[in-house]
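Exercise: predict the structure of this protein bound to adenosine-5'-triphosphate.
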Amino acid sequence: MSYGKLNVLNNLHLTLLQGQIYGLLGPSGCGKTTFLRCALGRLRISKGTMTVLGKPPAFPGHEVPGRMVGYMPQELALYNEFSIKDTFWFFGRIHGLIRKDIETRLSFLINFLNLPDKNQLVKHLSGGQKRRISLAAALLQEPPLLLLDEPTVGVDPILRARIWQHLINVVKDRKASVIITTHYIEEASQANMVGLMRDGNLLAEAAPDELIRSHNVSTLEKVFLKLCHASDQLSVKVTSVVCERRNGNLPEKDEEIPIILQEGVQNKPEFRMDCKLWMKSMLPKWRNIVALMIKTFTRIRRMPGFLGFQFLLPVIQISLLCLCIGGPPENLPVAVVNNDTGQPAMSQTFLSHFDSNTITQIHLNQSDAIKGVIDDPEIVITIQLKLQEALKGFVQDVLGKFAYLSSLPIKNFVSIDLNWNIAFFLAVGLTALSFVIERREGLLDRCWIAGVSSLEIILAHAVFHLLTMTIQTALLLIFTFLVFKIPNEGNLFLIVILILMQGITGMSLGLVIAAVFDDEQSAAQVALGIFYPNIVLSGILWPIESIPYVLRCFSLILPQTYAAEALRGVLYRALSVCLIRDDTLDSKMCSEFKDTTMK
Ligand SMILES: Nc1ncnc2c1ncn2[C@@H]1O[C@H](COP(=O)(O)OP(=O)(O)OP(=O)(O)O)[C@@H](O)[C@H]1O
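Solution:
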């Protein structure tokens, strides 16, 4: 087994018999955790064979990983927002335990591991208490195989002795098998068998007494030191001692050997796949999806800041956009130069259509008026709009039923699109961060090892996120159409579908980011880095037709370009008669229009 070029387990032969505790000992970095992860199906061995409870780990339909194995990782891998009770319920549901069993195991383990009140939140517990909860989660479903990675770190000597006694009882009463890694070499003397590892090799594998006796020393620690010393000089000889011993003790029946690892073996045994079991294992389990959704709900419920962020942010954004963008300025002084000598009545009619709230007419001569325009270009844009509106009213008076044909193609590009954009980016950010954080804290790994599939994790996330997005969308719609009364002529159902689809697209992008980046800092940087270029290039701020050609090609493959266009199409469908376009203008109406204007 290797990580890239780093060879971690070398020619390792290890056998665990049923009803035994196997103490795997060795210095930091020698490969103990790597071995456990191979046994759990999280890593694959590159050469040789490995069977766990009769089949290779992660074999289709095999419940390793799953409820047949209890794993306590080195990191805590606990949900901080959970109470002790929630933690037991979560893992209990995943393992398919019934309510009564969960309650019974909960009270036993709280008592046995000396845990505080079951309603205490994990984040309020001490490091040692958290480790005991992590151990309890591994013991919960009473599996036939327990893999415990340094379970006694940070535990006081009295409790350590109790944990060992419990493990001894478990193997005696239930014939379970246990592999335990530890730095406290002496505590492993209670194991039935110990394996001493160094640099990915097994230096020796035997019962502790036998090791002490055969090496003629007083403690296991001294055996280990002696073997390390010997392996530096005579590595071949030490390995052969290990092999000799193992071959003499193997039971005849396969099911009595929960774990066999033989690296470097060429002839791999064949395992038949049961198609029914395979199909069953591929189908997502509703039980796991519900457990994961309850988990997310429980966590979010205990994070009021996060909850506020999810639901208040869209409301704050839409309120700010509607209040600060697009509102008309008031009392703008406008120079009016009326040089109309032919029909003064027409120019007066036109001027009477000016909105007097926004525009205050000041009659000036031509040169003073031009100077004012040059001095104040920003205000001129607003005034131009007001002029266009006045022109529209004027044309309405003059052209009657054909007035709509002369209206101007002005699109409300910014405000509405930016509001919907929040659904997309909340989905990107929250998905990316939640997956990256859960993976870094070992929570995803723990779920996988408990038997939850990646598909179930994604489905649970998607369903929960869709529910959240439905509330966000409802808030957006209420504020857009009812509070700020932005006109909508389109189909509300289509608008909702489009916003939800943007959320799903955002979620998918979030998953891609989480798959590529390992830490939340990089994931957050990428999610933020995408935000602004996406808004600029997707035609949300300005039509893509005005973007340079090369960038426009890029813009068309962005996830929001067509979505934003579609949303605008739905929202303004009834207003689209404003646009004069050669291809949409009916020729009959065109000639009618000409006749009327000629008259
Ligand atoms: N994800 C990884 N990528 C690359 N190298 C890794 C990875 N995980 C572990 N290693 C390397 O593999 C070797 C064995 O690591 P492992 O975690 O199995 O050691 P260990 O015996 O469990 O140590 P400890 O007792 O400190 O937990 C180490 O040299 C480590 O640096």
